[in-house]
Every structure is written in structure tokens, then in C-alpha cells.
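Handout, page 2. Input:
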Amino acid sequence: MGELISARGIHKYFPGVHALNDVTFNVGAGEIHALVGENGAGKSTLVKILSGIHTPDSGEILFEGRRVDWKGPRDALKAGIAVIHQELSLAPHLSVAENIFLGREPRKGPFLDRAALRDEARRILARVHAAFDVDREVRTLIPGERQLVEIAKALSLNVKVLAMDEPTSSLSDRETENLFGLMGELRRQGVGMIYISHRLEEVFRIADTITVLRDGANAGGGPMGDFDQEDVVRLMVGRSVDTLFPRERPALGDTVLEVEGLSRDGVLKDISFKVRKGEILGFSGLVGSGRSDLVRCLFGLEPYQKGTISIKGRTARVRRPSEALEEGLFLVPEDRKLQGLFLNRSVERNVTVLQLLRRLYGLFLVNGALRRREALRLLKELNVRFARLDQEVQNLSGGNQQKTVIAKGLSVTPEILILDEPTRGIDVGAKAEIHHLMNRLTHEGMAVIMVSSELPEVLGMSDRVAVMREGRIAAFFEKEEATSEKIMLAAAGGVEVGAP
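Output:
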């Protein structure tokens, strides 16, 4: 397996931060090389150096055996190095074909050759087994299809090294399987791939080799067969993580939330369940099964036409989030960046925004000192790592952003906490912290509803599991009887069992 690209002794400094410290990294032809580590470990910085976005302060990059000094990402692209970032860089209002060849459109003299553009786009899409039309606007595609457009764009550049950052974070199970199949084909064609993911089960399934970064330095690596998940976790966090799912079920209290016959036209059908104080009720199911629609209805973000929501034995009419908050419900949404945070506002403002109208006003002015004390209390309680209270929240790591959203919810002391994909796209250390927090909150009497696409999380943290399919609850499982096989069978339509 010939070596395609190699980083040797790379150092990179940013103001106050030694981002990469003597890092070595190699990718061979036809190799899938997993690059893992906690948020802030240096993974993205290394990929940006390999792809010409950043310049190393010392060390060298070799490409196909010769030293290179990229002047910018265009140089790396011309050489055949492409990166698919977690936030896809597509123009939503342009067609698929226009996105694939953006800035490199075929021309006849001074005019765009639209026929050649479409033909070339169709040829490239055939390589990735895409079934959609090249004239479709990208904004009409589902996430998995947009991912294929990004890969097609890379292939149109005769890519030799392809880096993918959290490529499955917004994909369904079927879309993920399609992506893995495509990666297998690219491997056989000799393309070297860098695979960045927090989902270790995917890493062990798809990768040939692994490199672990911790605090900007090499922590270990080698062939995947030399490691198990416990080894990788230990290298990532610098200590043994006894369990990622530390569920200790407290004594359950009275029913705090009861949903009966909840229906939303075309989306939800006759949903009924109960949650008790101190309980974690996990919701599983395939993408599109209605899990997120259900919790959005509970929080007043979407309307429902039938059914009742009762909180502590009293019927509650929740038509908007402000009413949900008054009833003691808070939702941590699926997409923290789009739905949970004001990215260009400070950590302090994000944490205390829900309290402003309740407790932090003194006559007509905000009580700044009280606001700061409340923010610091909540941030310390959740172990959020930040530089300053006025730091913009977009500059925090993914795990610290997620804990900031949860801190915002805890600021109004809810009795029912709804977590939609609570650990999506965050590193293993932050996952463990959030799971320990869930444990503590339920021991203090809070009820938790958790929606998750990760079966190990559902099985490890739930006291009961509700499986949704096509807008209905297809099955309920007690913790002792829940297995991956039973949950997947129910999600796919093989069984309906259990009671609310």
C-alpha cells in the first residue's frame, strides 16, 4: 500500500494554544485511516494543514513521496486532496450539476456548455450510485443525497485523498450503509481516506488503521486489529472510562407526565405513554419515525390535533414553548447550533436567556451581577469549559455547546427534561459527562425523555424504551428485556409489544 500523504513532526500554534505538538500521520493508497480524539484534540487543525487551509509552524508534509508547501487549499485540491466538512459547503439554490463543477464549469468559448455540464455530472453521479437528477436544486435533497453531491464534487477533481469529518452525523441507517459501500469502492480504486468520527462502532467497522490525538499530540495508533474500544477511549481521554452509560436507577416517584392519544395529521398517530419522577424513558426508531415530531409537540413547537397532555395529574394545554416552560418542561433540541443556541452571543447570555423575564430584572434594568453569578453557577455545575463569560458560544467545543444548552434549560428548574439526540457529534468524554448528569438529575427527582439514534445509548441509559415506527409507538420494552435485536425488529415493523 503506497504512501500518499504524510505529516512529519507537525507543530501548529494559535494565540495561547499549542494546537499540534510534534504530530506524525500517514495515509496510504486504498487505506481508510480513522483520526479520533476529543473535541479540541487537534483533528480539524491537522486536516486543515494537510489540505492547505493552515500552514504548519514547523514539520513537513510529503505528498506522493515529495515535500510540498501548499500556498492554499487550491494547491491541495489540484493535487487531489479534498475535505468534506461536517457542515456541507454546497450552494442550496444551485443545481446538483452546478454544485459539482462550481468554478470549473465546462465552456464553449465564452459561454457555459450546459450539455457538457450535465453529461459530466451524470457520469460522476453514476460512480456514487446517485439516483437523483442533475438538474435538481440541492436544497430539495435529503442529507444523504447532499453527502453524495459532496463526494461527487471531490471525485470530479480526481481525488486521491478524501477526508470526511463526522460524515454520518445527519444520515439515516440506510444512508450510512450506502456511504460505507461507496467508501469500500473508493478503497478498491486506491483512494486514501481520512475518517473522523466520534462513533467508535463505525470506526472499528470501516477503518483499516487508527490515529488517536490527545491535547494536540499523538496518543497512539496502528492497525485497527491491535485495539478494542476500551483501548481507544483510554488513549483519547488519558484515563480509563469505566462505563459510558453509568445508569443507576433511583426509586421512581409518581407519574409526572401522561400523554394519551396524541395525534398530528400525517405525522403522529395515537401516541400514549407515561413518565415517572426519576425515570429515563428512551425513544428509539428509524429516521422519520416521528420521534422528534413527538417531542416538538410536547414542547409546543408543533401543533397536535387530538389527544391530551397531563402534568402531575392536571391537563396541560401546551401550544407554544413559553407555555411548556411554565408547565415545567424543557427541550434540548436535536440541532444545538440551529435550534438551541445564539451562536454569536456570549456564553453568559445563552445560559441565562430564559431567566431574564423571571428573576434577573430589577425594575427596568438587568441585574448584571446576579446574571453573572447565575451563569457561573450553572456553568460550574455542568463543568462547561470556557475562557470568559463574554466568549461567543460558537467558539466552544461541541460538547461544551451541548452542556450550555442543557444549562440554559436547568436555569428554569424544569421537572421534565426532554433530550433530543443529547450526545450527537460530541466526543466520548463529553458523552460520559452528559450521561453522568442525566443520572444525577433523575436521582434528584427529574423525569427525562431521551430521543437517540445510538442504540448503545438507548440501551445503556433508558429505564424503559419506546420504539416508534411510522408515527406510532410500535413497542415498549423494560430495561431488562430490551436488546438491539428487539428494538431494530420493532422499528422495522416486525413486532408490536408492550404497554405504556
